[in-house]
Amino acid sequence: MRGLAEVDTVAVIGAGTMGNGIAQVAATAGYDVVMRDVETDLVERGVDAVESSLSRLAEKGEVDDPEAVRARIEGTTDLAAVADADLVVEAVVEEVGVKRDVFADLASVTDDDVVLATNTSTLSVTEIAAATDRPDLVVGLHFMNPVPLMRGVEVVVGERTDPETVAFAHEFAERLGKETWESDDKPGFVTNRILMPWLNEGVRAYDEGVASKEDIDRGMRLGTNVPMGPLELADHIGLDVCLQASRTLHDELGDRYKPAYLLERKVAAGDLGKKTGAGFYEY
Ligand code: NAI
């Protein structure tokens, strides 16, 4: 296995909400980053998001040299550009078929001692790993949104993940300034197993007229000391991401994880939260 001391270049697959955040924190920690998405405008949007985030952090004095960090990130649509990566972190859409295809491709283009990590929120790391020739080097590195601001990273241990790979995942996250915890490869891991029912109950409470959306969020913020209520947090995560995660949990764990009807309807209407300008709130 290629150890942390040998990692210079990190490839990030997917330039969306999570991918561009992971690219940014890796470049901030001094790594060269190759960020890959499927279309040029998606790559550009990801790079733009990194630039605006870096300039906000620089204004607050939290990044010294935003241009130098930005210069370490190369955006691309070319899968061959990840061939020289010493570590890959995947953050593409939350669909097991897509992730398995991506991992099979990654295993064929990268050197065979390179760790392949997935940022999946709910899918089985074991099932994704089985699409590769190196399940022992596949691990879950579940970053939280927004990546540059959230301290925590959940390390997810697949059925065949080698203990050395697990240790490597913790060390890499710590190198990015994060703190970690570990979860077995069970649906939703620790965080989403507990978070998703909470979000869905917030959506149901709103749909059933228990209170206004503002009062549901305000009630949970003031009443339970969380920084965001369920509806604003769902908008922030992306309603499509919440729905996909809820469906996986429902399939695996049964009716207590059934997605809220209004969540299904919002996603069907294309109102995905902050990223499309409307979800439960307007942005
Ligand atoms: P997103 O929809 O913002 O971005 C996904 C990106 O992947 C899109 O730009 C899409 O074009 C790209 N993509 C799809 N197929 C690809 C391929 N074959 N190669 C390269 N790029 C490809 O989604 P988001 O929110 O960034 O989620 C990504 C992953 O992170 C998912 O697995 C999700 O469950 C997980 N996650 C999301 C969190 C959130 O709050 N949004 C939090 C933690 C994990």
Automatic annotation (TrEMBL):
Residues at the site labelled Important for catalytic activity: 142
NAD keyword on record: yes
PANTHER family registered for this protein in UniProt: 3-HYDROXYACYL-COA DEHYDROGENASE FAMILY PROTEIN (PTHR48075), 3-HYDROXYBUTYRYL-COA DEHYDROGENASE (PTHR48075:SF5)
Name of the protein in its database record: 3-hydroxybutyryl-CoA dehydrogenase
Any one GO BP annotation for this protein: fatty acid metabolic process
One of the Pfam families matching this protein, by short name: 3HCDH_N
Residue ranges constituting the 3-hydroxyacyl-CoA dehydrogenase C-terminal domain according to the UniProt record: 188-283
